[in-house]
């Protein structure tokens, strides 16, 4: 069972697609958002959630005070689940883009204060590097980019526009944090 950890929708259950996604565990989401709230980048944020799956990360941000969230998910079933979760939670300012992350970053809009990227483990590093490079102009000057990967995956290849500032490990999950380079 996947549920929202805290905020206005805290404790509410989320639907998850039957296959093809790997929802972030509640423990990792709780630790991640604790870190993000400490950094001051959730409340009032404009959030982009790439490879959204069920939408759990972006919806967690909306529950905790983000003013706008874009959930980007290419798989039709998962995008439908995102829409269902948005409707069930009644959180405002959340939209779903049924599009591949690689294509979305060609015209990402923004600027986003927080970008959450949790690609399937089988997304190759060069493809992830292209997505990160596509975000270069879409991240606010004081924004944060978060990449969640398997502990067996190498560190993402950061474009010159982004600089890693932290790494946290939670069992088999590693979370990388980056910000616009100075």
UniProtKB/TrEMBL annotation:
Gene3D superfamilies: Vaccinia Virus protein VP39. Keywords: Methyltransferase, Transferase. PROSITE patterns: N6_MTASE (PS00092). This is 16S rRNA (Guanine(966)-N(2))-methyltransferase RsmD. One of its GO terms (molecular function) is 16S rRNA (guanine(966)-N(2))-methyltransferase activity. It is an enzyme of class 2 (transferase). It holds the Pfam family Cons_hypoth95. Its EC number is 2.1.1.171. InterPro entries: DNA_methylase_N6_adenine_CS, RNA_MeTrfase_RsmD, SAM-dependent_MTases_sf. It comes from the Bacteria. SUPFAM superfamilies: S-adenosyl-L-methionine-dependent methyltransferases.
């Amino acid at each position: 069972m996947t549920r929202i950890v805290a905020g206005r929708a805290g404790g509410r259950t989320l639907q998850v697609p039957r296959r093809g996604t790997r929802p972030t565990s509640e423990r990792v989401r709780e630790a991640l958002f604790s870190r993000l709230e400490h950094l001051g980048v959730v409340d009032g944020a404009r959030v982009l959630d790439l490879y959204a799956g069920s939408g759990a990360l972006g919806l967690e941000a909306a529950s905790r005070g983000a003013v706008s969230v874009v959930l980007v998910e290419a798989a039709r079933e998962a995008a439908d689940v995102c829409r269902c979760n948005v409707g069930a939670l009644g959180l405002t300012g959340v939209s779903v883009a049924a599009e591949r992350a690689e294509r979305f970053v060609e015209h990402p809009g923004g600027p986003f204060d927080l970008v959450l990227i949790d690609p399937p483990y089988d997304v190759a590093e060069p493809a992830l590097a292209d997505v990160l490079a596509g975000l270069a102009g879409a991240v606010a000057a004081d924004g944060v980019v978060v990449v969640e990967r398997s502990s067996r995956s190498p560190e993402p290849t950061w474009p010159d526009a982004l600089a890693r500032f932290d790494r946290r490990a939670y069992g088999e999950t590693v979370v990388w944090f980056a910000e616009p380079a100075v």
